[in-house]
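quick q for whoever's on today - can somebody do inverse folding on this one?? i tried earlier but teh output was garbage lol. tokens:
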């Protein structure tokens, strides 16, 4: 759907130069001389490259609407990741790079949101946090729990994270899937 460049908002997906771009930042600029324009910072949906582009205010831009659906992660094998659509029970296989670094947090049965364009999956969004068990951590040093220092630990899925000093092996913790950081001790 064609829209004026003035109508581009953060989070929109636009088609520009035959590629799909996610708008990260927009700024309306009105120079002292010449016409106003929109400065847009965009990220390639497929390859992750960044682009800064100027659009004249009245220039038509192709806005793309993505189809969102809830999928359940089934398993990973040598060919990729296997998901099942929760509405139609159709199973699909995707390469690991579509999920990116979040693939290390996928667990059998986990529900994810998949965005697709013209039937082609583009992104997979995991839940913001997951609860996992600490399987390996340095022992607590007496007197160190009062400071806000962190120590390395290994999660049940093999991912290494930094946790507070009071966390021991066997403790369940909540982890942010975006940056693999410790959030809190699980309740």
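ok took a stab at it. sequence:
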């Amino acid at each position: 759907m064609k829209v004026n460049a003035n109508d581009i908002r953060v989070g929109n997906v636009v088609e520009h130069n035959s590629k799909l771009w996610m708008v990260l930042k927009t700024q309306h600029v009105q120079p002292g001389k010449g016409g106003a324009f929109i400065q847009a910072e965009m990220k390639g949906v497929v390859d992750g490259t960044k682009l800064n582009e100027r659009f004249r205010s009245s220039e038509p831009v192709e806005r793309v609407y993505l189809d969102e659906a809830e999928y359940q992660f089934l398993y990973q094998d040598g060919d990729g990741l296997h998901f099942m659509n929760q509405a139609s029970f159709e199973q699909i296989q995707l390469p690991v790079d579509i999920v990116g670094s979040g693939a290390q947090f996928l667990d059998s049965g986990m529900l994810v949101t998949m965005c697709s364009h013209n039937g082609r999956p583009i992104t997979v969004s995991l839940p913001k946090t997951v609860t996992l068990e600490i399987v390996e951590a340095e022992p607590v040093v007496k007197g160190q729990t009062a400071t806000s220092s962190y120590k390395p630990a290994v999660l049940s899925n093999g991912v290494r994270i930094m946790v507070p000093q009071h966390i021991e092996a066997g403790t369940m913790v909540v982890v942010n899937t975006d940056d693999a950081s410790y959030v809190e001790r699980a309740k």
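fwiw The chain is about 0% helix and 55% strand. also Helices lie at 96-99. so keep that in mind when u check it
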